[in-house]
# Entry
Amino acid sequence: MSSRGLRNRNPGNIRRSKVHYKGEKEFSTDSAFKQFETLEAGYRAMFVLLHTYRVRGYGSTISQMIARYAPPSENNTEAYIARVERMSKIDRHTPLDTLSEEQMVPVVCAMSAVENGVVAERAAVERGWQMFVADFAKK
# Structure
């Protein structure tokens, strides 16, 4: 059986909130987590959320972003950071350019693997990236 995140097409396990993402289902049947119309829309939401962290000053490194995304009150944050660092091959203290496909696709692939216990389908992550940059890239 697939993970909750993949069943919800929410590979980042983004919690329900007042924020509404493109492709988010209007009515979620999950009491805690958002649900998306497609897996790609779920990946797009992850890119949007991480980008928002950077532009609002919440952090720009893997270490800072994951400390906010997966706080120690709910997660083994250090293990999460270490795994994303190892899988993405990006140092946890390197400032990320959230508009860089080269940096962000490996980070989101790694985060999805941590969240769901299976390797992310890179093509789906890349399609989510394309949806994100269509809305957020400098024009």
User: Anything to note?
Assistant: The chain has one domain: 4-136.
